[in-house]
Amino acid sequence: MSLSQALQAARELHSQLPALREFAPWPGDLQPAALAPAAMPALDQVAGFGQPGTAETQPLINALRNSASQAYWTQTYTEEEVGAHFLQNYGYFELFGPTGHFRTNQLRGYIAYWGAGLKYDWHSHEAEELYVVLGGGAQFLTDENDCWLSAGDTRLHGGWQPHAMNTGDQPILTYVLWRGAGLEGLPLMGGQRASAA
Ligand SMILES: [Fe+2]
Fold first, then answer.
1. pLDDT tens digit string along 81-98?
2. What are the tens digits of pLDDT across the range 99-113?
């Protein structure tokens, strides 16, 4: 199955979840790009992702399970920053955006996966961000808030707002939108203290 089906499932999800529609309109200028697949260690975990979604998120989970091997998976962080275990169990790809499988400069849509038992340390970035939990769950932290999010839940992070995430006994598969200034930037690790200044 190709990533076109994942894009269509994301588009359908966008029409169904108010939080997505309120964050940004679906990009109107999407163009497919010839982006060759790139594997990552946790590819099989995504292809075999077994945590249930909601009625709205399950179609995108299914499309991702089937097309995971077609994605250009990347990892922002180095082993020095997060450790070898983290890199064996995490990865993301840009489904659409300035450098994604489908190109647009209006919005960025990532698919990001973390395995169970991971601590994703404090980080921040310029772009505003909306997380949608497709399946599984994790503890999401900001300076003001600390809560467990499960399938169908959403979380908004402001520009340069430090945030962190911990998975527990289950993995998490997420759909993440970026909008506004900094659309092309990357998350910066350890940004809690520095960027809060
Ligand atoms: Fe983020």
1. 899 999 999 999 999 999
2. 999 999 999 999 999
Q: Domain span at residue 138?
A: 3-196
Neighbours of 158 (CB within 10 A): 13
**CA proximity to 1, closest of 67, 96, 73:** 67
Domain holding 96: CATH number? Answer: 2.60.120.10
Ligand 1 center to 7 CA (angstroms): 21
* Beta strand extents in the chain (DSSP E only): 31-32, 90-97, 102-103, 108-114, 119-124, 128-141, 146-150, 154-157, 163-166, 172-179, 188-189
Distance 158 CA to ligand 1 centre (A): 9
Distance 79 CA to ligand 1 centre (A): 19
Total structural domains within the chain: 1
- 167 Cα–ligand 1 center, Å: 15
